[in-house]
Write a structure and sequence with these properties.
- There is one protein chain.
- By secondary structure, this protein is mainly α.
- It is about 80% helix and about 0% strand.
- The chain is built from 13 helices and no strands.
- α4 runs antiparallel to α8.
Length: about 300
């Protein structure tokens, strides 16, 4: 009887594991689609909100959604040992990335920003390698350097020979977001992904709520269909739901493998910028995005 039980258990595991990986891949892909709409939605939001008020209000709305879910399901507070990691998630994806990219989009097109942020998968992979102590191969570093050079050349060319303030905001956003992604992916292995971003948002509420009130006092909102739709998407879609499925996917398939799916994000954003905003692409934008995709794909194939 024991032998028969063992024999029947093996196929069950073999079937379940691929299904779990496929589901994780699908969840991470849905996160990428949600993130690809962030820049166009932010551009819409800026039609009726200032950069500081848009960032603060989106955080408040997302925190209310997340806090309501945590309260309704009576989820206990996370263990204290997880609080530093949640602080990194909050600083990176709740405050840092939204604020820096919103400031950048005041003077940058979404197409330009999408190409620069195309380095986010590579940056996330680098942070993940440093966090777990792995040693990437020479091929990995060569491809990383090539991708960085391609993006630097594009940003300098688009800025007329020098980096603009928008580019500095975008490069800063890369660093803080990669740290938040890496730490969130690590935490999602020990707690549900939606709780990772849920607690990060909720812990920020005592700061984001007063910040929203002050920002709206200095940057009065002028509500339009575009600004409201953009605000709702960046709050519910990008800030909460997108990160829920993204962290679940990262926990299921691993941080490096999930970050590879984000290679499609810059190209998707370029498409949305044309369809939703009517932007015109320069030949350098899609060419640079394609070059970055190739470089990051090589880093994903490289072995340590």
């Amino acid at each position: 009887m024991k032998t028969q039980s063992s024999a029947t258990a093996v196929p069950a595991i073999a079937v379940t594991a691929p299904r779990g990986r496929n589901l994780g891949t699908l969840q991470a892909a849905l996160g990428v689609v949600a993130f690809s709409l962030t820049f166009p939605a932010t551009a819409w939001g800026l039609e009726g909100f200032g950069p500081w008020s848009l960032t603060a209000v989106r955080s408040v709305l997302a925190a209310l959604i997340a806090g309501g879910a945590l309260l309704a399901l009576r989820v206990p507070l996370p263990a204290r040992r997880h609080w530093p990691g949640l602080a990194v998630v909050a600083a990176g994806v709740v405050v840092g990335f939204p604020l820096l990219t919103t400031l950048a989009l005041q003077t940058s097109t979404t197409a330009h920003a999408a190409v620069v942020v195309g380095l986010l998968p590579l940056t996330t992979a680098l942070f993940s390698a440093l966090r777990v102590g792995s040693r990437p191969s020479r091929t990995f570093w060569a491809a990383a350097l090539a991708g960085a050079c391609a993006v630097a050349a594009f940003t300098v060319q688009q800025s007329g020979g020098a980096l603009s303030s928008a580019d500095l905001y975008l490069f800063g956003a890369l660093l803080v977001c990669a740290a938040g992604y890496t730490e969130g992916g690590r935490l999602a292995r020990v707690m549900p992904g939606w709780q990772v971003i849920g607690w990060a948002l909720t812990f920020c509420l005592p700061l984001s709520a007063p910040a929203a009130a002050v920002a709206l006092a200095f940057e009065p909102a002028h509500l339009t269909a575009h600004s409201v739709a953009g605000l709702l998407w960046v709050a519910a879609g990008s800030q909460f739901l997108g990160l829920v499925v993204w962290y679940r996917g990262m926990a299921a398939v691993g941080i490096p493998k999930a970050s590879q799916l984000q290679l499609a994000q810059p190209l998707l954003t370029l498409v949305w910028s044309v369809l939703l905003l009517g932007e015109r692409l320069t030949p350098a934008a899609p060419l640079t995005a394609a070059a970055v995709l190739v470089c990051i794909a090589v880093t994903q194939r490289a072995r340590g």
